[in-house]
Amino acid sequence: MAGPVTDERAGVLRQRYHMLFDDPPLPVPVDRIAEDLLGLQVERDAALGDVSGALYPATRRIVVNANEEETRQRFTLAHEFGHWVCQCLTGMNAAVFCRHQDLAASTDRALEREANAFAAELVMPEAEVRTAFAEEATSAASPPASASRRLRCSGGCTASASPTVLDKLVAGGLRNGRWRVFYDPNQNLFNGIGGSAMERLLSLNPFEVPLKVNCRNTEQIATATSMFSGCPSLNSSIQRPKVETLWYRDEGDQRRTVTNCVRRLLSQGVRPAEIVILSTRTLKNRCLKDGWSSDFGAGLIELSTAARDESVVQFSTITAFKGLESDVVVLLDAVSASPSSRYLTYVGASRARLLLTLLLDESAGEEIAERYARFGDTAAAELAAASQGEGDR
Fold it and tell me: What pLDDT is stored for residue 152 in this prediction?
């Protein structure tokens, strides 16, 4: 089994920064280290598409995708100036463009793996991580989740540090300690678990128990999730109303459609706090950035800034809501021809426990028709196989 993957240069960089600036050690001030210590220019841009971050060595400039979650942006930034420290300072001058798969622990590209190790070590230093987990151990919140908020890291960060970080945190290490990993490949949004990381976990010969029953979704939601994402979904026996699909032409029409949808749900007795609107992008970059198209008494607030309030509907990106659930979900824009759409649609739709509404872009009609067709072909093949099995008995 491979040993821990670390990068001492990240620790040296943190030490130099704290010798000059009087900032608390956590969360690691990634932006200030890049700008104040290294003299790099950091920008956020909402028009990067599927690129998470870019480094332009000639102009000492890093650009981070503003559409991604703050914790993801922090890791991307650390990853990009990992390229700067590990490669540019030793002679590499070409611009670097990094996508989700490049920030994954399983990436096959040596330079990307080096930048990942640097970034994970920078934002999750071992001593501070141990202290954060120890101090949160008696907290009312889940210690890993609470410590992650304190460190302001998640997603790509923990994926790239894992299983090295886990090996350090678990008493007795991964080989001799007690641990559990819950893994759904359909929710592997950043491809962070896979390849060498998964191989290392499996090399420890853990006891594997496959989940066979859908404990969250209704049968209607499970079927729609599989149909629109193309990902297999576990069966459910829970019956509730059918999934609603609403079409829109442009951003203005999308805003009116989602407003009318939420107004109708409230008129049917659903409380605002029971509704979550999910999108591929943050609220400031979506159709509801200026609020509802007409006022009907309910507020709208982004999940990350929201205290529990029964009078507001919460808005979240799909990636930030991963691992959570809501009785009612309105999914804005996940279904598209984008390569990541399959996973985003699966994660977003499967957050709904009782009611699910999908807003579909008319311009994606061809892609959606293809998903319908593939779902039908798969269902027909499964039915034929089941019939054949019955006939062979």
Answer: 59
Residue 56 corresponds to which amino acid? Y
Burial of residue 127 (CB within 10 Å: 0-12, 13-18, 19+) is: exposed
* Rounded percentage of the chain residues whose pLDDT exceeds 70: 81
The pLDDT score that the predictor gives to residue 272 is 94
Residue 392 falls inside a structural domain: no
Residue 108 structural domain: 8-202
CB atoms within 10 A of CB 202: 10
Mean pLDDT over 229-251 rounds to 86
Q: Does 1 reside within a domain? A: no
Q: Is 31 exposed, middle or buried (0-12, 13-18, 19+ CB in 10 A)?
A: middle
Query: Is 232 found in the same domain as 165?
Result: no
Q: For the chain, how many structural domains are there in total?
A: 2
Kindly provide the residue ranges of all beta strands, DSSP E only, lying in 128-274, ordered along the sequence: 244-248
The CA distance from 16 to 20, in Å, is 7
Least confident segment among 59-73, 124-138, 171-185, 203-217? 124-138
Question: Domain check: are 250 and 162 in the same one?
Answer: no
Q: What's the pLDDT score for residue 154?
A: 52
Answer yes or no: are the C-beta atoms of 352 and 380 closer than 8 Å. Answer: no
Query: Is 211 domain-assigned?
Result: no
